[in-house]
Specification:
By secondary structure, the chain is an alpha+beta fold. 22% of the residues lie in helices and 29% in strands. The chain contains two helices and twelve strands, in the order H-H-E-E-E-E-E-E-E-E-E-E-E-E. The strands form two sheets. A six-stranded mixed β-sheet has the order 7-4-9-2-1-12, covered by helices on one side. Strand 1 and strand 2 form a beta hairpin. Helix 1 runs antiparallel to helix 2. The longest helix is centred in the first third of the chain and has 49 residues. The termini are far apart. The relative contact order is 0.19. Keywords: Iron, Metal-binding, Oxidoreductase. It catalyses: L-cysteine + O2 = 3-sulfino-L-alanine + H(+). One of its GO terms (molecular function) is metal ion binding.
């Protein structure tokens, strides 16, 4: 009887433990599901506060920059309803350059939130962010980023240095491969790599927060650039700080590059409630 009672006690404990485990797992799943919309909503509310006094050329305070950057660092693909097996991360059987897909989450005159989805080998060509502060969070995958800032006249006029052909001198800010998870990158109106190019080493997704967003009517159009080695214009040589490989001449393209294909797609992740 004592043995039977012991076995019975064990069975009861096992059943209770199993039920408790199921309950805990269910609570964890519920908590995870509940956290998905909260994360997107918190991102929106943080952006609303950070860019409340924003505008062209106005940089948020260092504390606000760090607050938004730190929050973006916590985001996972699941928080925005993304996974790497979604169709716009594939480029099998496609002719020409792989298209980039943009998922629009939110936009207002102060800031915008969206996600660029890049299949492997997709490229977002070199372009600028006039008067903007931009936060870029690599959600998953690997991406090569090359970015520049303008070199200005050392005499203090703050004018760009131009070649005889009209190209402007820029210095490399970043030339590296980023692999998720990694720290959110931030660029500013005149520093931090305001002109950048993204190349997908693997399929990847980048969540971008722009403050303020592009606006052609307010002289914040997106400009694309051709890139030339510093030695391309030997007659325009100047005294450089550092190696010549750290510099390039950037020439404005007259229009959007022909090989850039960006498609809009419906964002199906948690929605923002603007109230």
């Amino acid at each position: 009887m004592r043995v039977d009672a012991t076995l019975a006690d064990r069975e009861v404990r096992i059943v209770l433990a199993t039920e408790k485990g199921k309950s805990s797992s269910k609570k964890r799943r519920q908590k995870k599901l509940a956290s998905m919309p909260r994360a997107v909503q918190r991102l929106f509310e943080t952006c609303k506060e950070v860019f409340a006094e924003g505008g062209p050329g106005i940089i948020p305070s260092p504390n606000d920059v760090e607050r938004l950057r730190s929050f973006l660092d916590t985001l996972k693909p699941a928080n925005v309803g993304l996974s790497s097996n979604m169709p716009f991360f594939r480029n099998v059987g496609m002719d020409g350059p792989p298209p980039v897909t943009y998922l629009h989450i939110y936009a207002c005159p102060k800031f915008s939130i969206g996600i660029f989805c890049l299949p492997q080998a997709a490229v977002i060509p070199l372009h600028n962010h006039p008067g903007m502060t931009v936060f870029s969070k690599l959600l998953f995958g690997s991406m090569h980023i090359k970015s520049y800032d303008w070199v200005t006249d050392p005499q203090g006029s703050n004018e760009k240095i131009k070649s005889s052909s009209g190209a402007c001198l820029a210095r490399v800010n970043t030339d590296a491969i980023l692999k998720a998870p990694c720290e959110t990158s931030v660029l500013y109106p005149a520093t931090g790599g305001n002109m950048h190019r993204f190349t997908a080493v693997t399929s990847c997704a980048v969540l971008d927060v722009l403050g303020p967003p592009y606006n052609d009517d307010e002289d914040r159009a997106c400009i694309y650039y051709k890139e030339y080695a510093y030695s391309s214009f030997p007659g325009d040589a100047i005294v450089l700080s550092g190696e010549s490989e750290e510099y390039a001449w950037l020439e404005e393209r007259g229009s959007e590059p022909d090989d850039l294909v960006v498609r809009g797609a419906e964002y199906k992740g948690p929605k923002v409630v603007d109230c």
